[in-house]
Design goal:
Function: Key enzyme in the regulation of glycerol uptake and metabolism. Catalyzes the phosphorylation of glycerol to yield sn-glycerol 3-phosphate.
Number of strands: 22
CATH topology of one domain: Nucleotidyltransferase, domain 5
CATH superfamily of one domain: ATPase, nucleotide binding domain
CATH architecture of one domain: 2-Layer Sandwich
Pathway: Polyol metabolism; glycerol degradation via glycerol kinase pathway; sn-glycerol 3-phosphate from glycerol: step 1/1
Catalytic activity: glycerol + ATP = sn-glycerol 3-phosphate + ADP + H(+)
Helix content: 25-40%
Strand content: 15-25%
Bound molecules: adenosine-5'-diphosphate, SN-glycerol-3-phosphate
Number of helices: 17
Distance between the termini: 57 Å
CATH class of one domain: Alpha Beta
Radius of gyration: 22 Å
Family: Belongs to the FGGY kinase family.
Strand order of the largest sheet: 16-17-15-14-20-21-22
Shape: globular
InterPro entries: ATPase_NBD, Carb_kinase_FGGY, Carb_kinase_FGGY_CS, FGGY_C, FGGY_N, Glycerol_kin
Largest sheet: 7 strands, mixed
Length: 500
């Protein structure tokens, strides 16, 4: 009987589980979507029980597909990052819904911390910016809005975790309260140069240390599953935030290698090796991975709306039935119309970091129809990536000659990938394995189990599906980019002052 690693990929819109064999072949995929809650403007929540139940159901199906838990050499977990859960240590029950990374409810708290002069300390210690995106202000919000929670946290009765920690706690029957360093680096509470929780940051954000999990390497012993869950214990050997897992799955192990993942949001990650580069262009410095105690850093550009714009076409405007309809419609759009969408549905992320602006459409005419809106939505993802690449070029000039490795659900769309190459003016490589996030998580667990070899050998197995070469003439590219920047300027809440 074949042996596998089980990868659990807990994303923003769905929980997936799949099997990866010794030859990195993926099979046995199970996936469950779950409900998005939008209780107020700019608020986004998930029900932690639904996250657990969908993850568990997917994992159980995958284990059954493997012929039982005895054929699983280890479990790797990857997850939507920053999303914040606080639960009772005694019962494992969450005291509030998960506050999702996209949620903007703590914009005022971030502004107050900035006015109080904490922005530079946060930037220096964490590599992040003061923005509601990260976990710290979400934790404080829950403690200040759920009756008795702050006192209970001080007493050690409650536990905080990003989704990796929450799943680990549940999978191990409450025996493990740990996270990995990539997820920890997104809380705004970790000093990314020491790799430890920072008392200074805990004081700034008013978060009790008693809430926090232990911080571990990406491949290590995270404990074993409760035997009742899969009919016997299985070791959990790998954990990473989904964007870092995708960086590993894309084998971006060398400094200068760049990947961008197009899921609900889009996250471009550039490996910067042992150097933690402080961005001058409003990108994030973050941990790419840590193996055997050796830390590798990255620069990251984070965009909040990518595939979510396609979901808006489908679920909001109802002008497409399936996400895959959007590409052919964009291809059929009227070439004489310049419709531009600024998809600031929850504000804008890097490099603008404007939590208060909201989305806008420009250039509508009486002839504008679904095709033009579909093109505007897909093109907005490419243009946002252009802004990230420009910021990276500013921080690391050597990126100019780079190739972008693209993945995530939206990478299936040929029109988007071609337009991306055209706008960025660099080749875009799509690998055969589009499930790079799960592959990265599986690789970590397989490495820990001795099932997979060292990263250098894993990197030789990366395989190209298709390279998209830039084809657009420079004047056309420049015209589209100029229109985009004009549209962004008119959307920003600060009256149009551009950061670059
Ligand atoms: N063929 C396609 N064309 C355009 N967008 C797509 C296509 N297939 C999937 N998507 C988009 O990709 C996203 C799903 O990607 P996925 O990597 O599963 O996201 P997540 O991990 O954030 O849940 C959805 O937002 C969906 O709208
Ligand atoms: O669910 P995804 O793939 O859009 O990823 C979410 C990110 O981890 C948020 O930082």
């Amino acid at each position: 009987m074949a042996r596998y690693v089980l990868a659990i990929d807990q994303g923003t819109t769905s929980s997936r589980a799949l099997l990866v064999d010794a030859d990195y072949r993926i099979s046995g995929i199970a996936q469950h979507e779950f409900k998005q809650h939008f209780p107020n403007s700019g608020w986004v929540e998930h029900d932690p029980e639904e996250i657990w139940e969908t993850s568990l159901a997917a994992a159980r199906t995958a284990v059954a597909n493997a012929g039982g838990g005895r054929n699983i050499v280890g479990i790797g977990i990857s997850n939507q990052r920053e999303t914040t859960v606080i639960w009772e240590r005694a019962t494992g029950r969450a005291i509030y819904n998960a506050i999702v990374w996209q949620d903007r409810r703590t914009a005022d708290q971030c502004e107050a911390l900035s006015v109080a002069g904490h922005g530079e300390t946060v930037r220096e210690r964490t590599g992040l910016v003061l923005d509601p995106y990260f976990s710290a202000t979400k934790i404080a919000w829950i403690l200040d809005h759920v009756a008795g929670a702050r006192q209970r946290a001080e007493n050690g009765e409650l536990a905080f975790g990003t989704i990796d920690s929450f799943l680990l706690w549940r999978l191990t029957g409450g025996r493990q309260h740990a996270t990995d360093i990539t997820n920890a680096s997104r809380t705004a509470l970790l000093d990314i140069r020491t790799g430890k929780w920072s008392d200074e940051l805990l004081a700034i954000f008013n978060v009790p240390r008693a809430l926090l999990p232990e911080v571990k390497d990406n491949a290590c012993d995270f404990g074993s599953t409760d035997p009742e869950i899969f009919g016997g214990p299985i070791r959990i050997g790998g954990m990473a935030g989904d964007q870092q897992a995708a960086t590993i799955g894309q084998a971006c192990f060398k400094p200068g290698m760049l990947k961008s993942t197009y899921g609900t949001g889009c996250f471009a990650v550039l490996n910067t090796g042992a150097t933690c580069i402080a961005s001058r262009n409003r990108l994030l410095s973050t941990v790419a991975y840590q193996l055997d105690g050796v830390r590798t850093y990255a620069l990251e550009g984070s965009i909040f709306i990518a595939g979510a714009a396609v979901q808006w076409l489908r679920d909001g405007l109802k002008i497409i039935a399936h996400a895959s309809d959007s590409g052919p419609m964009a291809a059929a759009a009227d070439a004489n119309q310049d419709v531009t969408l600024v998809p600031a549905f929850v504000g804008l992320g890097a490099p603008y970091w404007d939590p208060d602006c909201r989305g806008a459409l420009f250039g509508l005419t009486r002839n504008t129809g679904p095709n033009e809106l579909a093109r505007a939505a897909l093109q907005s993802v490419c243009l946002q990536t252009y802004d990230l690449l420009q910021a990276m070029r500013g921080d690391c000039p050597e990126v100019s000659g780079a190739v972008l490795r693209a993945d995530g659900g939206m990478a299936a769309c040929n029109w988007t990938m071609q337009r991306l190459a055209d706008i960025l003016d660099i080749p875009v490589d799509r690998p055969t394995a589009l499930e790079t996030t799960a592959l990265g998580a599986a690789y970590l667990a397989g490495l820990q189990a001795g099932f997979y070899p060292a990263p250098e050998e894993f990197a030789t197995r990366w395989a190209l599906d298709r390279r998209f070469e830039p084809q657009m003439e420079a004047p056309e590219r420049q015209r589209i980019i100029a229109r985009w920047h004009d549209a962004v300027r008119r959307t920003l809440s600060n009256g149009g002052a551009m950061p670059m």
